[in-house]
Amino acid sequence: MSGIKVSIIGAGSAIFSLRLVGDLCKTKGLSGSSVSLVDINKKRLNAVHNLAERYASESGANLKFEKTTDMKQSIKDADFVINTALVGGHEGLDASRKVGEKHGYKRGIDSQEFNMVSDYPTLSNYNQLKFFLDVAHSMEEICPNAWLLQAANPVFEGTTLISRYSSIKVIGFCHGHYHYGVESIIKSLGLDVKEVNWQVAGFNHNIWLTRFLYKDKDAYPLIAHQWTEEEAMKRKPEYPFDDQMSPAALDMYRFYGRVPIGDSVRNGSWRYHYNLETKKKWYGEPWGGMDSELGWAWYQDILRTVTDKTFSLASDESISLLKEFPPDVKSGEQHVPFIDALTNGDQERFVLNIPNKKSIIAGIPEDVVVEVPVIIDKEGIHPEEITPPIPKRIMDMYLVPRMLRMEWALEAFVSGDKRVLQEILIRDPRTKSFEQAKAVIDEILALPFNKEMKNHYENRCAYNK
Amino acid sequence: MSGIKVSIIGAGSAIFSLRLVGDLCKTKGLSGSSVSLVDINKKRLNAVHNLAERYASESGANLKFEKTTDMKQSIKDADFVINTALVGGHEGLDASRKVGEKHGYKRGIDSQEFNMVSDYPTLSNYNQLKFFLDVAHSMEEICPNAWLLQAANPVFEGTTLISRYSSIKVIGFCHGHYHYGVESIIKSLGLDVKEVNWQVAGFNHNIWLTRFLYKDKDAYPLIAHQWTEEEAMKRKPEYPFDDQMSPAALDMYRFYGRVPIGDSVRNGSWRYHYNLETKKKWYGEPWGGMDSELGWAWYQDILRTVTDKTFSLASDESISLLKEFPPDVKSGEQHVPFIDALTNGDQERFVLNIPNKKSIIAGIPEDVVVEVPVIIDKEGIHPEEITPPIPKRIMDMYLVPRMLRMEWALEAFVSGDKRVLQEILIRDPRTKSFEQAKAVIDEILALPFNKEMKNHYENRCAYNK
To answer: B206 with B402: CB under 8 angstroms?
Structure first.
């Protein structure tokens, strides 16, 4: 086995990169592979590279590492490119959010119906979407046969954009929250996981438990029976994103008739998100879920702690990384198992984001990327038939509205027509006047890191003013 | 020619009924037909019946008339049933609107994105939708082969509902505003109408000029060249619904790339409708269009005047009705020409509302009613191929969002689930809190004429409280 080459873009994100490296070390079929780490932040890149090499060496894994700040250099001869980069970082997100809040858009203009996740921007993120296309177009030139694993948010918008405007094979990846989500349900019902037959379907961050059988029988009556309002209300979350059994999840289930899974729980309508008080009611005390100001601050703290720890681990070679990251546990991320299954051919089931070709989800256009269960083997990707189908209420009141917001965001990005951004905000319940929508967009375009975005939106379309 | 039987439900609406009767008198192929007038308002019914008989007699037309307050009696042996009834009348609309405005919903909760027309309710109109189904189901029993001409609003929601839940042949009819709209464009450009090749497509009150050729060449560049902002802004409307060349229409055309036709101009987003001042800017002084408080008051005045005139004409048999309603002009309504074409078989072109079977409009489900040009002859209805197709921006940013609101309204009506009404309002930019949405719906349900609606929405679904 000569191994394959994996390029990780945005590798300075330590948690994510070390999870992938850990998984690679534990995957025998990928022994002999090389990993190219890319980040524009040299300090983070060096730290992650140091930890990755040490971890592999301590594990006795046969992996080669390289590091570079040049994406194009890295993807040379790559078989798989994993893009996890957040252009502009959390600082950029925060700056845009701050402008939004100044103009009356609580949690920023990118918090939208069915898309409240605080690092999933679709409107203010020109730089991010532009970079997605840059990576894909660079791959067309440099490694046209490689797979692009699109792990950076917004996965839904990004994977759809790339699949429409590039010939590269692209798959959208999310953390395995669906797995945690489905397991939470199974655990809370006290069922034997081996006897459960489940299916989820929808879009990234918008998936629903469409099939749930126990010993071949419909197990939804068990959920209806055991998951009571009283239970949900008295349950306290252990951490902000401990929301699978929250009152919001229960309410969505009761309204839509199926259980929302993983991050979908964060993506209800404004009903759950008007303000901190409302969020606390629906996602639990004290944080009000991941996407409140409190939940998000908690998460930023964790990110800072991890970054600090990364640097301190990297600077002290006497520390055993195997102790820090026990080698017997896989990360739960899907990327490495996916690469393994495709390369070495053991059939495995994943939940991935792929274009809706041959109408995997009926009623969704074929050029929209859906998140569905698939079987991966050497031959490629085999989507499961979605059966039973997604209920009409979920389609009409949740998925299609969410899909439209993806289309609107891409229409703005592709056309460079500022009026589209304005019109999207006119349809936002927080907008009271056209002037408000106009002002917030102009101020976001004026942010120093949005120079290229401003140029795009002010010079490309004849009607931009 | 033995003639056919036409039943007009809601015939007490004098303007509309007399237009139909006038058209019937002028249509030789329908000589010998009988007309059954139905209304629950006896005074109006008697007046219209009097005028209809006198008009036919003065015209020398061979038509028989009957009148009844009993719909089921009227549709016996009918070949065509025209439903134009507004259950609860304008008083009902006004009462619901008043409750809406009390709770912060300017122009009432039924004024919605892409559906701002003030007598086109989709949420508070349980009685109306229920009556649509009552008529259709009565026809299944009494005259199963008759055609139902659905002329009462909401035509989009109503025709879709009936086509899904009844086996009756149903067609949705609107006034010929598309005709007036297209002609306004042609006239303003100074073109020879005979050399214009046009097509419109969309939903009722949401149609767009998708094809516009002059002497076989694309004539959109003429519109772009001659229709300037300056022209639009300085133009004063002659009456409130004189809006085809309004700034709103121009703005919609420039944003969507095609000209909105007829009532579609009234159905932009909130951008044109925030308040009276905004409406004046976009629809012209002094009324701010048909759907402002001023435009609507103007229209109510006209309706009152017409009703008064109807009664005074009916009470004075010495007046010549032919002088009042000159016999040489057809009304422009499509109903009678449609009946004539279907009965007697001269091929004629109409713009009608029919289910989207065989994807007349690509990308819209087949069980949704679309408004498209069709050729009618003895064989039936032949929809035109829509070419060029509707642009993607119109589909994604206008038609599909409008379609979803139809689906949501029908989901509420069919399920009897009050939470659907609440959730629709949560997605309304005028809603600031869940409590506001809840309160306005509860108060509308408490209106005395909504007793059946209240029962439907409070007892049918397990989660209604």
So the answer is: yes
At residue B103, the 3 state secondary structure works out as coil
Q: Say whether B177 is catalytic.
A: no
- Residue B61's Cα: distance from chain center in Å? 29
A429 contacts chain B (CB < 8 A): yes
* pLDDT above 90 as % of chain B: 89
The whole-angstrom separation of Cα A329 and Cα A326 is 6
Q: Does B221 touch chain A (CB under 8 A)?
A: no
Are A96 and A119 in contact, with CB atoms under 8 Å apart?
A: no
pLDDT of residue A464: 61
How many Å apart are CA A261 and CA B307, to the nearest integer? 58
The residue in chain B having the minimum alpha-carbon distance to the alpha carbon of residue A400 is: B404
ipTM: 0.96
Mean pLDDT of chain B: 95
Q: Quick check: B396 and A408 CB within 8 A?
A: yes
Task: Output the CA–CA distances (angstroms, integers) from residue B349 to B263, B345, B390, B432, in the order listed.
Answer: 20, 12, 20, 47
* Beta carbons of A290 and A243 less than 8 angstroms apart: yes
Residues of chain A where predicted confidence (pLDDT) is lower than 50: none
Q: Side-chain half-sphere of A141: how many Cα atoms within 13 Å? A: 8
- CA dist A245 and A230 (Å) reads 12
Looking at residue A243, its amino acid is D
Contact A426 B271 (CB under 8 A): yes
How crowded is residue A87: how many other Cβ atoms within 10 Å of its Cβ? 18
Interchain CB distance below 8 Å, B426 and A270: yes
How sure is the predictor about B463, in pLDDT bands with cuts at 50, 70 and 90? Answer: confident
Residue pLDDT, tens place only, A233-289: 888 999 999 999 999 999 999 999 999 999 999 999 999 999 999 999 999 999 999
Tell me the pLDDT tens digit for each residue of A52-76: 999 999 999 999 999 999 999 999 9
Dihedral sign, CA of A396, A398, A401, A404? negative
pLDDT tens-digit readout, B201-217: 999 999 999 999 999 99
Give the CA distances from residue A442 to residues A77, A94, A102, A109, A308, in Å, rounded to whole numbers and listed in that order.
42, 17, 13, 12, 36
Determine which one of B39, B242, B263, B291 is catalytic: B263
Residue of B nearest to A431 (CA): B429
Indicate if the pLDDT at residue B133 is higher than 90. Answer: yes
* Neighbour-count burial for B374-405, b at 16+ CB within 10 Å, e otherwise: bebeeeebebeebeeebeebbbbbbbbbbbbb
Task: Label the pairing between strands B80-83 and B147-150.
Answer: parallel
DSSP 8-state secondary structure symbol assigned to residue B118: T
Catalytic residue positions of A? Answer: 175, 263
Q: Is the dihedral of CA A147, A153, A155, A160 positive or negative?
A: negative
Read off the pLDDT of each residue in B228-250 and give the average, rounded to a whole number: 92
Number of residues in chain B = 465
Residue B18: φ, ψ to 5°: -70, -30
B398: nearest Cα among B271, B282, B268: B268
Predicted local confidence at residue A175, as pLDDT: 80
Contact A429 B429 (CB under 8 A): yes
Q: Which two tokens stand for residue A102?
A: 């100044």
The verdict on a CB contact (< 8 Å) between B432 and A408 is no
For B333, the 3-state DSSP assignment is: coil
Does the bond joining A327 to the residue before it have cis omega, within 30 degrees of 0? no
Backbone angles phi, psi at B354, to 5 degrees: -140, 155
Please indicate whether residue B234 or residue B101 has the higher confidence score (pLDDT): B101
H or E element in which residue A269 lies: none
For residue B427, the distance in angstroms to the closest alpha carbon of chain A comes to 7
